[in-house]
Structure formats: structure tokens, C-alpha cells
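not sure who needs this but someone in the group chat was asking about 5-formyltetrahydrofolate cyclo-ligase from Microbacterium dauci so here u go. i didnt clean anything up, its just raw.
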Amino acid sequence: MDGIVDNEKRALRAELRERRQQRSAAALDTAAAGVREQLDRLVAEHAVRSMSCFLSTTTEPGTREFIAAAVARGIRVLLPITRADGLLDWAVAEQEGATAEGMFGMPEPVGELLSPDAVNDVDLLVIPAAAVDRSGMRLGWGRGYFDKTIGSMEKCPPVYAVIFDSELLDEVPSEVHDQPVTGVVTPTRTLVLHH
């Protein structure tokens, strides 16, 4: 059974990746502005003082404008750094923070490394996703970092996945280890998904 789900996930990820690569620069700029507006509102609603986010790649809904603005407002933003053991270290985002290519070619912050436990005291987790379904199940990119992080937290805060509007699906293939999210942030809206 797991092999079938694995193949379904792989096929869906490939299709979503291809769709993302076809977006124009203008569409990506518009999406980034929308994501910033939605995340600004979400952070205000939850009175967030400390949170996690991620440095978006060139094909993801942009988070970098939001991160810069949040740091400027005094919000402590933790950014993930991949480790070979499948866990995430964290670094505090800085106004003019340097980045480097991480283990899988993704942008990661350069700075003092904080342990995987550093994320335990945040008010909000904002994570990447390939797609999310209406029940809150998230399809990641297949490495399991965020599923492990969410699954290991004693007191998990609200978790929102950042996706494009078209990536909110009726259903995504899932397995036992996959962790649901509280909701999604898209360029046009923020939705709470009950699971």
C-alpha cells in the first residue's frame, strides 16, 4: 500500500513542481505581495512575538518580503537549516541576513545555529508545502523535515502552510507519518482547515 501512496505523491509533486516553474516573474511578484499581506494579518491576529518561517525559493509563493518586515517590527523569526539526520536546526532571521545553499539546494540562513528544540517556544509555525487538502493534510516535498518537527513538538502552536491558491486540493495522498496543518496562507486568503 505504501508503494502506491508513494507513487501518487511523487506524481503529484512532479505536476505541482512543473506548474510552479511555469509562473511568470510578474505572477510571482504579485503572489509574494499577497502572501506578505496575509501573513502580516495572521501574525497580528495571533499576537505573534516569535515564529518560524522559511526562505522561499524562486518558484515558491514568496516569504522574503514578509520575513524582512517582521524582523523590522521586532518579531523573532526562526529559519530552518536542514541536517543529515532528518531534523532541522534553526537560525534567527536578521535584517540583512546572509544566505547559502542548503543540503538540498534550498536557500538557508547563515548564522548561529540553534538546536531543533529552539522552535518549541514559537507562537506560530509557517512552513512550505507542495499542496494541502481541505482536511488540512499537507503534501510536502518528500524529505519529512516538517512532519518530524511538528510530530515531535510537545505543545505545537498553529501551523500554516504557504501555497498558491490552486494548490488547495480536495485530497492529497497521505501516510501515517504525515502531519496535518492548522490552515493555509495563499496570495489571496488565509484559511483555517479543521482536521
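also The CA atoms of residues 39 and 66 lie 7 Å apart. if thats useful
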